[in-house]
């Protein structure tokens, strides 16, 4: 008899509400979701590879150029929960279309930027567009696939995340070898137009919440994430006075927000869902996994350039095996994610990721490209094994009617981990003259911690 994912609570799931789509209807709807997802992920991956070139061309230090990534992530993170809540009211399909359109416009703004400030602001607005897409992405998958096959849909989602991250460095390297960095944003335009057309015609209409939009709560949520993120970044860069003031303001906003949200129906910050221990544990595991991944992803281009002395075109090709591993393993795990518990699959995945990071950490500086590539592939395979089961655990722990909040919180765990990882990279680059292998060591520790927490979730959730 097949093992049952016993550590993932299915309480509150309405089978009729999640009957799903079938045949050509499912294929078209899922294609629209995945194309929008690919747009968001592809651009993020390309921007990472271009950081050294952007820093050089705009005369910016590496620690500041990382804000090209951080601005996108912080805006994305700050807006995810309000937009997930708003998406529950206007419809998940419409919210996705708004995000794709905004992403299209801001890609032009990024390409036309003349200095780091302009590029950072354009990337922040692009992050808002990405938040519109990502806040409802998994919620749409939950309506496209029936409950018994949800793991397949989430694994397919993870597969395309891997494809986007894999294509990003490769496309970025090709673009940078023949053109300047603004072209990494110009190439978004045809993909965004295609995604917008498909989303308009193929995405399913979903039930809408009749609860009134919470504008004060939305503004407080954005302020809480943004002030805390900018304040922590200031502290990481040694700007202690402004950093401390902004961090303190962010903490106060969080306190006010949680008091304001207490007892509200469908709160923007889903405190009702976080009170469910399986949901909370799955979010924490996801957060730690993405802290580990971004300590690797953001720092590795600089590591390959400064420590291993690789050029721009080679850097992208050496990072690509990570995403290839994620994509391949996401496809494989999709066949078993509905049958085996996340406490087993996700734990093994993060353990394998940590092992891959350790092997990279131990590499000599004269290592060959092949030696770097296969270790990166191994770490990526582990991450691909970890992600779909853990995402499924988050979604099935939420009751019917809270799909938007669960989808938003899943993305918050991912982006919160990524942003924390990027902030740690910025801090280490500020403090240490050669932090390359320190970042890899931190990634290994975060992955091991996430693996241990995932393994224990069956007992901690009781």
Automatic annotation (TrEMBL):
UniProt keyword Membrane present: yes
Superkingdom per UniProt: Bacteria
PROSITE patterns, sorted: MFS
First-listed, main subcellular location of the protein, grouped into a coarse class: membrane
Entry's localization field: Cell membrane
GO molecular function, one term: transmembrane transporter activity
Transmembrane segments: 32-54, 66-86, 98-117, 123-145, 154-177, 183-203, 215-234, 240-258, 279-302, 314-333, 340-363, 435-456
Domain Major facilitator superfamily (MFS) profile: 29-459
Alphabetized UniProt keyword annotations: Cell membrane, Membrane, Transmembrane, Transmembrane helix, Transport
Family matches, as CDD domains: MFS_MMR_MDR_like (cd17321)
InterPro entries: MFS, MFS_dom, MFS_trans_sf
Protein's membrane topology: Multi-pass membrane protein
Record's signal peptide: none
Pfam family, one: MFS_1
Keyword Transport attributed: yes
One CC-aspect GO term: plasma membrane
PANTHER family: BLR6921 PROTEIN, MAJOR FACILITATOR SUPERFAMILY MULTIDRUG TRANSPORTER MFSC
Name of protein: Multidrug MFS transporter
Organism this protein belongs to: Gluconobacter cerinus
């Amino acid at each position: 008899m097949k093992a049952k994912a016993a550590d993932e609570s299915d309480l509150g799931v309405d089978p009729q509400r999640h009957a799903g789509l079938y045949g050509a209807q499912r294929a078209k709807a899922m294609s629209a979701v995945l194309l929008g997802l690919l747009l968001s992920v592809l651009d993020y991956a390309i921007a990472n590879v271009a950081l050294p070139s952007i820093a050089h061309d705009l005369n910016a230090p590496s620690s500041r150029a990382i804000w090209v990534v951080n601005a996108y992530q912080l805006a994305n993170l700050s807006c995810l929960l309000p937009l997930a809540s708003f998406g529950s009211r206007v419809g998940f399909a419409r919210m996705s279309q708004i995000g794709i359109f905004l992403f299209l416009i801001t890609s032009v703004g990024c390409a036309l930027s003349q200095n780091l400030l302009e590029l950072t602001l354009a990337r922040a607005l692009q992050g808002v567009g990405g938040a519109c897409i990502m806040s409802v992405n998994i919620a749409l998958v939950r309506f496209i696939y029936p409950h018994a096959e949800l793991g397949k849909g989430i694994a397919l989602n993870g597969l395309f995340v891997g494809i986007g991250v894999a294509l990003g460095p490769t496309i970025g390297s090709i673009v940078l070898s023949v053109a300047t960095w603004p072209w990494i944003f110009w190439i978004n335009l045809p993909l965004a137009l295609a995604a917008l057309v498909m989303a308009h015609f193929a995405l399913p209409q979903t039930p809408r919440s009749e609860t009134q939009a919470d504008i004060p709560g939305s503004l407080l949520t954005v302020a809480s994430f943004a002030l805390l993120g900018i304040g922590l970044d200031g502290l990481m860069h040694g700007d202690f006075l402004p950093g401390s003031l902004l961090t303190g303001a962010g903490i106060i906003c969080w306190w006010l927000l949680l008091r304001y949200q207490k007892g509200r129906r469908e709160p923007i910050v889903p405190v009702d869902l976080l009170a469910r221990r399986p949901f909370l544990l799955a979010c924490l595991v996801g957060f730690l996994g993405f802290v580990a991944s971004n300590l690797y992803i953001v720092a590795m281009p600089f590591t390959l350039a400064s420590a291993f002395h690789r050029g721009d075109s080679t850097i992208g090709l050496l990072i690509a095996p990570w995403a290839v591993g994620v994509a391949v393993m996401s496809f494989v795990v999709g066949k078993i994610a509905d049958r085996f518990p996340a406490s087993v699959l996700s734990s093994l995945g993060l353990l394998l990721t940590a092992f891959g990071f350790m092997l990279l950490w131990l590499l000599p500086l004269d290592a060959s490209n092949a030696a770097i590539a296969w270790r990166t592939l191994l770490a990526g395979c582990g991450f691909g094994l970890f992600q779909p089961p853990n995402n499924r655990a988050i979604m099935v722990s939420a009751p019917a009617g809270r799909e938007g909040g669960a989808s938003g919180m899943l993305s918050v765990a991912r982006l919160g981990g990524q942003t924390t990882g990027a902030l740690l990279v910025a801090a280490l680059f500020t403090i240490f003259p050669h932090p390359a292998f320190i970042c890899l060591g931190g990634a290994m520790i975060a992955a091991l911690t996430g693996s241990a927490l995932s393994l224990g979730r069956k007992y901690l959730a009781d």
